[in-house]
Amino acid sequence: MPIRITRGVTPRPRATGALRSPLLTLALAGALIGAAILLFVRFAHWAGAHPVIAVLLALLALPVLYVLFRAMPRARELRRAARAGMVPPAGEEPAPEPAPAPQVLHIPADAHDGLTAVLPPPAPAFTLPDFTALDPDGFEAAVAALCERDGCQEVEVVGGAGDLGADVLATAPDGRRVVVQCKQYGPDHKVGSQDLQRFGGTCWTVHGAQLATVVTTSEFTAPALEYAEACGIRCVDGTALAAWAEGSGAAPWGPAMLDTA
Question: What is the CATH number of the domain that holds 163?
């Protein structure tokens, strides 16, 4: 599943639809009816001025109308046959179509349930990055990739101006809403209690977190760890991040990938 990145993305407005076909049909029908009425009125005025010629024209038109009326059923049959792709010759009935042969379902020999073949295990597609060499945007994308690798769904990178402390949003394998703040700091720049307090003021109430975590390439100060423990925020420092990425350490929402016993 691709990871969504929604920094500064403005949704495009939906294009309005064109004129509906029923309205167009009604407009054409109204135009034809109006033209027919106008033609009938003009003909009535002309017939009143030339009655003899009008009667002769009516007598000549009767055989033509009779022939057209008799030909209408045959024309309808030809149109139906043309739509079906089979125009029968004159005086012959179309032959009935043969019934389609039943399809035979091929069942693989190595299927477990008789329908689904056994698939080979997927090849690992995650490459361990150097977290300290990434810029802040790259670090957020790398943490999002870790979340997706370890079973999270609906992973989205939302960090940027106005993110209110959330850099990555995801749904954990157990269904909890995960809100992650990423701190790409150098080894001499520790995450302090003020960073945790700002995140703690928005992760639960604004973003609706059920599991809040701060991930950093550096370390946390002692007051920051105390505040995080009191508020239920999980802290992942550089050492824990490397273990998480290698699979020997636990993800913020679950156990380690590998059995290290």
Answer: 3.40.1350.10
Whether the per-residue pLDDT at 191 is higher than 90: the answer is yes
pLDDT band at 94 (very low <50, low <70, confident <90, very high): low
CA-nearest of 33, 61, 34, 63 to 47 is 61
Give the pLDDT band (50/70/90) at residue 13: very low
pTM of the model: 0.53
Q: Identify whether residues 242 and 135 lie together within a single domain.
A: yes
Cα 183 to Cα 204: distance, rounded to the nearest angstrom: 19
Q: How far apart are CA 231 and CA 131, in angstroms?
A: 27
- Is residue 107 included in any domain, yes or no? no
Q: Within 13 A of 17's CA, how many CA atoms are on the CB side? A: 4
Please indicate, yes or no, if residue 91 is contained in any of the structural domains: no
Average pLDDT, the chain: 78
Specify the higher pLDDT residue, 187 or 71.
187
Q: Pick from 124, 166, 116: which is nearest to 148 by CA?
A: 124
User: CA-CA distance, 91 to 123, in Å (whole number)?
Assistant: 67
174 in the same domain as 71: no
The domain in which residue 27 lies consists of 23-83
Say how far apart CA 132 and CA 115 lie, in whole Å.
48
